Amino acid sequence: MSFPCSPRRRGPLRLTTRRQRRASAGYYRSTMCRLGGAGVAHELAGHPAAAPAVTGIARAGRTEGRGAYDPVVHLSSSVHDCRGSHCSIRGDPGLGFPDEPRLSNPLEVMVGLTRERAIAGAACVTAVVVAVAAFLGWWHVALTVMAFAQAAVIVALLDVRRRMARSHDVRKIAGSFKSVERRLDNLGARMLAAAETSRVEVADKLAEIARTVEERKVVETTLRANLENVAAKAEDNRAKVEAWAAELEVWRHGLDVVRSGVGDLGKRVDVALTEAEKDREQQDKRQDLAAARYIRQSEALIQLYEWVRPRCAMPSLGGWALDPTGVLTLLEIVRRRQPGLVVELGSGTSTIWLGYALEQLGSGRLVTIDHDERFAEQTRTHVRTHGLEELVEVRVAPLVDADLPGHATRWYDHTVMADLTDIDLLVIDGPPRSTGSMARYPAAVRLRDQLGDGAVVALDDATRPDEREVVQRWREEIPELVVSAVPPGDALKVLTLQPSGDRPSGVEQSP
Length: 511
Ligand SMILES: C[S@@+](CC[C@H](N)C(=O)[O-])C[C@H]1O[C@@H](n2cnc3c(N)ncnc32)[C@H](O)[C@@H]1O
Known about the structure:
Blueprint: H1 18-35, H2 37-46, H3 50-63, H4 71-81, H5 106-111, H6 115-136, H7 139-263, H8 265-307, H9 324-337, E1 341-345, H10 349-361, E2 365-370, H11 373-385, E3 392-396, E4 399-400, E5 411-412, E6 423-428, H12 442-446, E7 451-459, H13 465-477, E8 481-484, E9 493-497, E10 507-508
Parallel strand pairs: 1-2, 1-6, 2-3, 6-7, 8-10
Antiparallel strand pairs: 4-5, 7-9, 8-9
Helix pairs in contact: 1-7, 2-4, 3-7, 6-7, 8-9, 9-10
The structure holds S-adenosylmethionine.
S-adenosylmethionine binds at residues 319-322, 346-350, 370-372, 375, 429-430, 432.
């Protein structure tokens, strides 16, 4: 038969008595069922508590002399026979394995005669021998056989007695089996508890491993992010280093230039010192000229106030006005030429000085022209303040087309001064240069026919390039205008209109 958790028996299984077989089989089955499998059989075979009991069974079986079942040997061999958790065993453990042949002694082995039959046969043979011997009168043979028979009976009785003692041992063995069973139960429970503990520990270990794996994943992700960050920073730093290297190269180039420049630095310093010396000399000359001019202006100013005694404060000769030397020159011309009509283009402080000069002279009049009504009114005020209204007339002539071919800059409205004829002195100090190029060129040209014989034309700001050009064109277009010699640096250029038939060489002496 087969049943779960029982190892398949190998080889003959013989137990001496039915009780022994039943106890052994029951123990064996229950133990195998509880512990299950070949591994448990190992435990059972090697367990120090279980071994004596099992060995005791084997010993009991062997002493019967019938080849008892050895659980130790059987359990050891069943380690190799069990496959998985399902084993099989032949025979009925509860009935002492009746399907097993009882071949336990030489007679049984040789002729298949059982012990009981052999004893019965021997008794019959003995009785027959004793009866034949008695019938033949062989008393000594009969007595001898009877003595052997008596000895055999005694041996049989001793055997029965030993068997009864053995039965008592079997009960003790059954008790031992129960003890072993309990111990094995405890062992199984401990093993199950240990297995559960191990399972829990393994589960904990697995959970811990899973946590560790997760943590390592997080660490790996962080490390990768850090690595990428570090790589990006390294790339950034590399770009910076390259930029610094380029900048360094520029500086190195600059240093090379400086180094090469330092080579002829002494020479260049000499050149610079020479140029500085020249500049200093020119500066000295300019300062000398400025000082001389300042002195001349001061002297002229002193002379002006010696010559003219203003009735009230004079307007300033600074700024846009004629400078003192120019005013002094005009007053000298007035004194020498005694003009009947003086015409001034561009009114201002000079107007007052000329008015006083004419007043001192006692003859002549001044007509001053201004394109700007504001400045004209300002001059009128000064004229009234100084009581010169009888001698000085202020007119306003707005700037209009000059009516000269090739000349775009506007000039005074000529109709305002068309009535002025026989001009003895023409003072040209307007329009201002801000009105356009060659602003004063039209004056001599448009008023040429209104100038009297020997008239004097005085042009202020004659040192400026524009006015130099004006003078040059006048001399080309009006040859009778002769430039008078004036001190170099003076702003007032004086020209004289030479009478016809008395053409000058171009430059006459200072007035
Ligand atoms: C050079 S200013 C004439 C100055 C005048 N002959 C004198 O000696 O006082 C020529 C014209 O400039 C204008 N002007 C005068 N003073 C000025 C000023 N301070 N700023 C701007 N224009 C001025 C007036 O219209 C004047 O007719």
